[in-house]
Amino acid sequence: MNVIKSSFIAGAIFLGGCMTPLPVAEKSIDQASILGQWDLERVDRHPIANAISLEFRADGQVSGAIECNTFLTDYQISGQKIEFGTAIITAAGCHPRFDAEPQLVEQAESALFALPPARISEDGDTLILRGSSVLVFRRVR
Prior knowledge:
Elements: H1 2-18, E1 26-28, H2 31-34, E2 36-43, E3 46-47, E4 52-56, E5 61-66, E6 69-78, E7 81-84, E8 88-89, H3 102-112, E9 118-121, E10 126-130, E11 134-139
């Protein structure tokens, strides 16, 4: 019986290791902690690539890309939220290399601009926005 129980636990640990967990240790954000470039890597538990990138600058501006369209706006940290101003967005046609699932991209874009509460991982390399969806960004630089 103990062998079966141990095998079950080992199997559960192995299978659980296959899913990429959300970071556990998080801290509050401030402007200094989010400066730099970030790429969206997950929407909820769905991996995503080439969908959204952000670059927070010390002058209160954020530029970025949503697929092949770029944007520029101002931002400020208000409590635990990142508040964006009115964005100037291009309306370019997308190049075929952008293969992210359109529904996930739309879901992520809506969640991003809805001012969700934001946290940053203890190591400063993961930005987590929790709103209608959980957006996980990885620091690029």
